Amino acid sequence: MAMIDAGGIRLHVQRMGPGDGRTPHATVVLVHGLLTDSLASYYFTVAPAFAAAGLDVVMYDLRGHGRSERPPRGYTLDHNIDDLETLLDRLGISGPVHLVGNSYGGTIAFGLAARRPERTASLTLIESEPATAAWAAKMGGILRRVVTQLAHNEPDALAWIVTHRGHNTARLAKSAARLARETTLGRDIPASRVLTEARITAVRCPVLGVYGGDSDLVDLVPLKRRLLTDFRPVVLPGHEHSVLVEAPGTVGGHVLDLIRSVEGAGAGAGAGPGSAAEAGAGAR
């Protein structure tokens, strides 16, 4: 574990490698989602398999999340993209990396790929989309509900979550309520600068999209096919937005397949841990 100063904000970072003396053949950077999420969602799902497959795995808590610093303001998408870019600089990672983003983390990762294409080898969007005007409007509605239902009526909301989702989810929701209540996040994210269609189509690296078959985000697949030069969608039937934690082996296998295809045949012989060859049944 390390705390890294990323341009005036301290971010909590975890890093994993092969652990057997091998030199990692590529770096994968994992970016988590919003409010109830943290790097733990990767640490306990796909990160160990990625490290075992020979990758340098970088995970970090977004500003305001997990063990990272929680400033009272400064939560626009550009702030988060700045954090990611500065973090790579502080860690001395200069070459292209494989970016993996879950939910809001994918929007951050796509933003970096659009801003700095030379730093992006591939991009995986897990239940995620680029920042557009429609995305900003949707996020505004979601965050207003969080503030209204959770931050301003916390006891009743948490009691419902405990009953229907369990104590661990309630603990995460309590932290999310505090973040929404004590910072400008709820206002900053919907007000973020969004990408034009030209900026989206300018992303030329291979893009893997992983979606739950029961998620509304799967409806965006045709649009992404049209806008992105190399878009590779995977839809996992029977899953919704939490596909990363519900099907980590399948999700991780598809990500590893993408990275190997970009790095070439030498990026790792055989299927390896968590590969799609082992866990891809049911994907389409």
TrEMBL record:
InterPro entries: AB_hydrolase_1, AB_hydrolase_fold, Carboxylesterase_BioH
UniProtKB keywords: Hydrolase
Protein name, entry field: Alpha/beta hydrolase fold protein
Leader peptide range in chain numbering: none
Domain of life: Bacteria
Gene3D superfamilies: alpha/beta hydrolase (3.40.50.1820)
Residue ranges occupied by any AB hydrolase-1 domain in the UniProt entry: 27-131
Keyword Transmembrane: no
Pfam families: Abhydrolase_1
GO MF, one annotated term: hydrolase activity
